[in-house]
Structures are given as structure tokens and as C-alpha cells.
């Protein structure tokens, strides 16, 4: 397709903070200078403000995860109206329910229809196959592609890895982190939405065994979400601080000693890529796409999900082996530069669109 003539609709569940929403924002930045128009359709969220510098219009709809008949009718109607009003030529969905709506409205007959899958799934097989069968399919990693084939029987899938921009803004000192470092603390952070998927419960449970050996360890939870109060109760009396939702993740990571990813499942997570971009190694659970980024003993350490004991052991090992940790950090930067840079992502998506 000729990019300059296209009007793209990016259709996601939400513009709220999260990996998928970050990718949508990246795609807006990539395609803004290349196409005629971009429109975003999703539920309300914090990141819609980031669309304004590009002059990109955001339309709000109810949460598409809801299966209520009234929601389905409302979203389908709104989608058709926007496609007509904005003269959309390409619909690019980022959630299987978004793809479902393209299917039930028949809009795949009028527009190029692309879907990027950001996670692995094992439920709702009939719905997922229906949602994706008319789409040109992209997976954010090899494990997501394998999941689409093994579970849903979808074989024509292109892999385009997630990526982040290099951190070039310069460090803006976080006073709380600085105070802790100056008091002799070793700074360990876990970043993500506070939900079941991210496994923060096991991160908190690992703290006991770390501080027994290393009382200087200070832990941080960076993010917000539905499990926040539960995690605060679980972490009572432990050296863990909740920093809330932050937009300066790479800046914060650059001031930590160590990053942890305790997820129970992932597509291709941004957290290890962000950590690698600022020269930090990671202790991560060996799930799905994480294993495409983190090579155990090379650029990070891998542990089993839901295993707080092993997680604590690996954190302790890195605290106790600074030279080996430094080698892993150098390898982490190399991995980022060669495999997960923003330039590679931008070129891959532009080439994919042009091929349709």
C-alpha cells in the first residue's frame, strides 16, 4: 500500500498505561509523518494526552472487554461511524475483542485489517479464531506466534519484536531513590501494572529471604493497578516502597541497582528491553516471550514463575557477585542495540504496511 494516502485507525482496549498502549503510542509516532491521518479508538486513559502533540484524535468507547449486549451494540455502532466519518482505510487492532468488532461489523471488507497480538492466550478459542481470521496477523514475539498456531490454528503470522527508544534524555534524579542510596541501600525495582499477571505477590514474598542476608536491600514497586491495596497489606513491615504510576521508567531504572520481572505470563514484555536500554540486568521469570529477551546467565537470570525462594536466591547472587553482574549489564546493552532498538521496530512496521 502507498502509505501517504492511508487513514489509520488504531483500535485498542485502553490508552491507559501498559505495554500494549505503549506500542500503540510508538506506532502513532512512527506512522504520523508517513500517512495522511491517524485516529485512536479505545476506552479513556492517561496516555490519550500523549496523542495531542501529534494532533491525533482520540475517540472514547466503553471497555471492550465487557460482553454486555448494550456495550457490544454501542461499540459496533461507534466503530462504524468513526470509520465512515474519518474515511479510514486501515484498521489496526491491538486486542482480540477489537478484532472481533471489525469482524462483526464487516469492516474488513472496506479497509485493510491488521492485528498485533501482544500476549499468549488459551481461552475463548472460537471467538479468537473468528476475530483474527480476516486479519493480517502480527505477533510481538515468537512465543506469541507459536501460541496463535498451537492454540488457535492460525499460521500466517509475522513477528515484529517490541522495542523501546534509547534513553537519551539524561538522568533526572529521583530524590527518594537518591536518599535511599546515600543511606547505603541497594536499590531493587519491579515495574508493571499491579495485577495478577505481573506476579508482584511473589516478588514481595521473596523480600524476606533477601533482607535476611542483605539488610541493605531496598525494594520498590513502580506502577498502579487493581492489586495495589492487597500488595500493600502483604508488604507491611518490609523494606518496600510504592512509587505509583510513572512515565519516566527508563529514568527510574537507570537509578536502580537491579530490575526484577516476576510475571506469570507475557507476550514480549517491555520491562527487560527498557532495563537493557539503560544498561541494567534483570532477574525475570522464564515465561513465554521473556525467554526471547533474557538469556539465563548471559544478560540476566531466569527463575521459575511463582517461586519466591528461587527469586530471592538469584537476587542475593547478583548482590554478592558485582563483577558477574557487570558482565551481564554489558551484554544487556548489546542485546538491546542489536535486537530490540526502536529503529528496527519502526522499519519493520513500515515495511510490513507497504507490503500489503
Q: Which characteristics define this entry?
A:
Rossmann fold, 7-stranded parallel beta sheet, 356 residues, 6-stranded parallel beta sheet, 14 helices, 2 domains, 18% strand, alpha/beta, 13 strands
Task: Describe the protein's topology.
Blueprint (H helix, E strand, L loop, with lengths): L6 E8 L4 H13 L5 E7 L13 E4 L8 H17 L4 E4 L2 H10 L6 E6 L7 H8 L3 E4 L2 H11 L4 E3 L15 H8 L3 E6 L8 H14 L3 E6 L5 H7 L5 E5 L4 H5 L4 E4 L8 H8 L4 E4 L4 H4 L7 E3 L4 H13 L1 H18 L2 H14 L1
Parallel strand pairs: 1-2, 1-4, 2-3, 4-5, 5-6, 6-7, 8-9, 8-11, 9-10, 11-12, 12-13
Helix pairs in contact: 2-3, 3-4, 7-12, 10-13
Brief summary:
The protein is an alpha/beta fold and 356 residues long. It has 14 helices and 13 strands.
Describe this structure in words.
The protein has 356 residues and is an alpha/beta fold. It has two domains: 3-163 and 341-355, Glycogen Phosphorylase B (Rossmann fold, 3-Layer(aba) Sandwich), CATH 3.40.50.2000; 175-339, 3-Layer(aba) Sandwich (Rossmann fold), CATH 3.40.50.2000. It is 42% helix and 18% strand. It has helices spanning 19-31, 69-85, 96-105, 125-132, 142-152, 175-182, 200-213, 228-234, 249-253, 270-277, 290-293, 308-320, 322-339, 342-355, and strands spanning 7-14, 37-43, 57-60, 90-93, 112-117, 136-139, 157-159, 186-191, 217-222, 240-244, 258-261, 282-285, 301-303. The strands form two sheets. Strands 3-2-1-4-5-6-7 form a seven-stranded parallel β-sheet, sandwiched between helices. Strands 10-9-8-11-12-13 form a six-stranded parallel β-sheet, with helices on both faces. Helix 2 packs across helix 3 (96-105). It is elongated.
